[in-house]
């Protein structure tokens, strides 16, 4: 068996909507104390609550190392605005931003906007793929060093380092360039929940991190291998993808035995497979799946964030660190560095170099 890559761990900090910024800041700081790669915050047009991207922009200055990944719905939204908002999060967090791509499929959500009807999942995910493509092009539309800010000459920008994207797809036509300079990471990290077929194709083509729902390590490894094959077909290096198993975690009774098979737990749609047990049992499960080479890590969504995240960090993560399976400090300052991902080259700069 080839040597294992570093274990990656992330956590959701959602739960019932809260309007107190200290709640989210406290959870993010707790996860940061365990050196988790990132925290995510779900969002949807189907339920009330604060905007996830805005919440994590508020959390950013109160944290130092943890990655911040809000869910961003690409249906009913403009990719130009989405790319600007995610780039802004990367700037205010100094390179710790990501975004979890999602779609809006219900008629009730469509009526909130009144501009279009609900569409099939395959169509919505094709549109989401276009939004991810446009976002990456807009982030590249400013080359590094495009800002001059020379007061003596009155030159603010080097216009030769600004580029039009001129993107035209089935859903969007975007000229560009962006209004926000290229983010610190080049491209903020793109996360896609890739269990379902249409979403999996988008994940293989555009994602840096793929979340999958699986009840066994064999099932997780099978999905990962399929994502890798699809990525290679798009001329991507499969080694640059991180595949994390998504688990909804209930650690309410630390002394209880876990469910006898993850798939037997009650289904919680959109949050991954359900796990119930104690922090030590969870650490054992993570150890087993990771040492089997089935996954690159886990995304853990606490059923009750205020209770379960503390048990994850101070119980499960601490035990994994004691076993030397998970790091005790951050190796760098950006989310890409946490994940071991390179900073993408600028496509327009490369085209200019070849010309």
Structure overview:
The structure is a single chain. This protein has 355 residues and is of the alpha/beta class. It is 37% helix and 17% strand. The protein contains 11 helices and 13 strands. It has helices at residues 21-33, 52-59, 79-92, 107-113, 121-140, 197-206, 217-233, 279-291, 305-322, 335-339, 347-354, and strands at residues 8-12, 38-41, 67-73, 98-102, 147-150, 155-157, 167-168, 173-174, 189-193, 209-212, 242-250, 273-276, 297-302. It has an 8-stranded parallel β-barrel, surrounded by 7 helices. A two-stranded antiparallel sheet has the order 5-6. Strand 7 and strand 8 (173-174) form a beta hairpin. Helix 1 (21-33) crosses helix 2 and helix 1 runs parallel beside helix 9. It is globular.
Q: Please tell me the overall pLDDT.
A: 91
Categorize the overall geometry.
Answer: globular
Class by alpha and beta content: alpha/beta
Query: What is the helical fraction, as a range of percent?
Result: 25-40%
Describe the sheet with the most strands: 8 strands, parallel, barrel
- Please provide the count of β strands: 13
Q: CA-to-CA gap between the ends? A: 43 Å
This entry's quaternary arrangement is single chain
Radius of gyration: 20 Å
Name the beta content range: 15-25%
**Succession of helices and strands:** EHEHEHEHHEEEEEHEHEEHEHHH
The total of helices stands at 11
Uncertain parts: 254-272
Strand order of the largest sheet: 1-2-3-4-9-10-11-13
């Amino acid at each position: 068996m080839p040597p294992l890559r570093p274990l990656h761990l992330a956590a959701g900090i959602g739960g019932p909507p809260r309007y107190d910024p200290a709640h989210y800041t406290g959870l993010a700081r707790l996860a940061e104390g365990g050196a988790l790669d990132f925290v995510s915050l779900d969002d949807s047009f189907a339920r009330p609550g604060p905007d996830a991207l805005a919440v994590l922009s508020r959390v950013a200055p109160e944290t130092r190392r943890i990655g911040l990944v809000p869910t961003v719905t690409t249906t009913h939204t403009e990719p130009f605005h989405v790319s600007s908002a995610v780039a802004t999060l990367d700037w205010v967090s100094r390179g710790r931003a990501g975004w979890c791509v999602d779609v809006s499929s219900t008629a009730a959500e469509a009526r909130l906007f009144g501009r279009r009807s609900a569409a099939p999942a395959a169509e919505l995910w094709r549109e989401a793929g276009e939004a991810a493509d446009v976002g990456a092009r807009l982030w590249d539309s400013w080359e590094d060093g495009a800002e001059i800010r020379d007061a003596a000459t009155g030159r603010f920008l080097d216009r030769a380092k600004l580029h039009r994207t001129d993107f035209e797809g089935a859903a969007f036509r975007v000229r560009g360039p962006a209004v926000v300079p290229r983010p610190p990471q080049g491209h903020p990290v793109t996360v896609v929940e890739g269990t379902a077929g249409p979403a999996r194709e988008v994940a293989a083509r555009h994602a840096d991190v793929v979340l999958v729902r699986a009840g066994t390590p064999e099932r997780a490894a099978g999905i990962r291998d399929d994502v890798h094959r699809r990525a290679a077909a798009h001329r991507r290096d499969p080694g640059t993808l991180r595949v994390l198993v998504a688990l909804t975690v209930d650690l309410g009774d630390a002394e209880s035995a876990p469910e006898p098979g993850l798939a037997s737990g009650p289904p919680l749609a959109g949050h991954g497979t359900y796990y119930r047990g104690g922090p030590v049992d969870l650490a054992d499960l993570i150890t087993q799946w990771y040492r089997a080479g089935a996954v690159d890590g886990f995304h853990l969504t606490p059923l009750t964030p205020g209770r379960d995240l503390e048990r994850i960090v101070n119980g499960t993560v601490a035990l994994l660190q004691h076993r030397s399976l998970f790091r005790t400090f951050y190796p760098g300052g950006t989310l890409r560095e946490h994940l071991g991902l390179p900073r993408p080259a600028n496509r327009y700069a490369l085209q200019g170099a070849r010309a």
